[in-house]
Structures are given as C-alpha cells and as structure tokens.
Amino acid sequence: MCRWLAYIGEPRLIEQFLYEGPHSLCEQAQHSHKAKLGVHGDGGGLGWYGKAPEPALYRDAGPAWADPNLRELTRVIESPVFFAHVRASTGAPNLLVNCHPFRSGEWLFMHNGQIGGFRKLRRHLYAMLSDDCFDATVGGTDSELMFQLMITRGLYSDPARAIRETVREIDELRRQHRISEAFRATFAVSDRRSVHAVRWASDRHSPSLYLNEADGGVLLVSEPLDEDTSKWTAVPANSYVRLDLENDGSIDVHTESFLVQNG
Fold first, then answer.
1. pLDDT tens-digit profile of 105-151?
2. CB within 8 A of 194, min separation 6: which ones?
3. Residue 53: is the preceding peptide bond cis (ω within 30°)?
4. Whole-angstrom Cα Rg for the chain
5. What's the pLDDT at 92?
6. N or C: which terminus of the chain carries fewer CB neighbours within 10 A?
7. How far apart (Å, rounded) are the C-alpha atoms in residues 260 and 166?
C-alpha cells in the first residue's frame, strides 16, 4: 500500500508537507501508522502546477526520504495544487515509469490500493483502452492502467462519470472472472482547477483517507500529518470527494456516496 497527499488552495511550499512535522509524508514512508506495509521505499514522486499549461512532474525509483533532489525541489517549489506520493509496490517492478503521479495533458493521477487478481485481468483491461491510451501506457502498474481507462471513458469532459464507470467496469470484470481477492483503492485526479478523489473497496476494508480544511487550503491524505485529531476528518468508506478552487480563492468541498452497481 502506498501513501499520498493532495493539496489545493493558496500557494504553499511543498517542503513542509513532505518533511516537516511529526508525521510528514517522508516520515510515513518510513513509519506508516495505518498501512499494512510499514515502509514505503519503492519510489516517490511529485506533481505540481505552475505557469505552464501542463503540470510538472518529478519521480524517482529510490526511497523518497533519501532523495536529495526531491528535498531541493520541495524547498523552493510553491504551488496552489500539488500531488505527492510514496510507493510500496504490490507486484510491478521498482522502476521510474511505475512511480506516481502519472500525467496526461493537464491531468495528474495517483493511487493507493490494488486491483484484486490484476495479473489475470490485465490482458482484458488493456483491451478496454482506446488506441491512444494503450499507446500512452509505458509502465506495468494497475494504477497507470486505471488512469488510462478513466481517460478512455471521458475523464477530460466528465471526470465524475469517467471515474465511476472505470471502477464499475473493473469490479464487474473481477466478478466475471470470479476473482476473490478484493479491489481496494484511494486515488486522486486533478486538472489544476479541481481535485477529484475516491475512497472505495469491493469489501469492507477500503484504504484510509483523511481531509483537512485549514490555512487557506484543503489537504487529502492517506493518513494525518500530525497527532491533532481535531484537524483531520476521516473520509467515509465508499465516498467521492470533489474540491473546486473558486475564483475568490476559496475551496468548495463536496462529498457524496460512491456506490458501484454492476450489471
């Protein structure tokens, strides 16, 4: 299981979220409190929005806490929207192309979890991609494939619908192939203006996800960055969260049930 955080709001230096405080993301990478795997050393990555139309991306296959380049970048990068991710592989090789976040045009994506029975389903899932999305897939993770399937299903024009259809189709495929292993996920996508996130599982054990509205922005995290429980709200299981950056700089937070009905 991986650990991740997404931020949207007033521009902030990224360093404070990755390195400062008692339970920063890089501290979680070494000593997670809420993940099955206590250490997340199979790569790390950062995606952020600046002046260019497309987001910037930095990824490395080594442990994030030991990456001096990541430390230097986060010390000076200030952004209103950014993703950060530390990886614990569930089977795909420890390679840079398998590290999160993933990027397509204006969109960023990152993921924690696993598609149960992915090795058995992989060929069928690839067949569901558009030609362009198939050609754009360069790694071997279920995460990247899920992102490309969302794009195939219309992420650019209707994110909420594309996300729901993607999860439904993957879960239906699991059922058709009688996969007993669960499909569990938290993930986030962003186009700079909004962040869409989901906490979901096919069983009762969805990965953790928390929300913090403070200091001119909103954070979504796999687990809290400190011990002040009053600041962090657990996102309910099987939920969809949308964070919209308004023209006045405020953040509109919308949460709704995320139920998947299979045909």
1. 999 999 999 999 999 999 999 999 999 999 999 999 999 999 999 99
2. 8, 159, 242, 243, 244, 245
3. no
4. 17
5. 62
6. C
7. 10
- Torsion angle of the four alpha carbons 200, 206, 212, 216, in this order, in degrees rounded to the nearest 10: -30
Band of pLDDT at residue 2, cut at 50, 70 and 90: confident
Mean pLDDT of all residues belonging to the chain: 90
Give residue 42's pLDDT. Answer: 65
Interstrand relation of 184-190 and 107-114 (parallel, antiparallel or unpaired): antiparallel
The whole-angstrom separation of Cα 187 and Cα 198 is 6
| pLDDT at residue 93 in the model | 60
Looking up tokens 């709001």 gives 9
Query: Which residue segments constitute the domains of the chain, with CATH numbers given?
Result: 3-112+186-255 (3.60.20.10)
Residue tagged 């990068």 (tokens) = 77
pLDDT at 38 over 60: no
Distance between CA atoms of 183 and 171, rounded to whole angstroms? 7
Burial class (CB in 10 A: 0-12, 13-18, 19+), 176: exposed
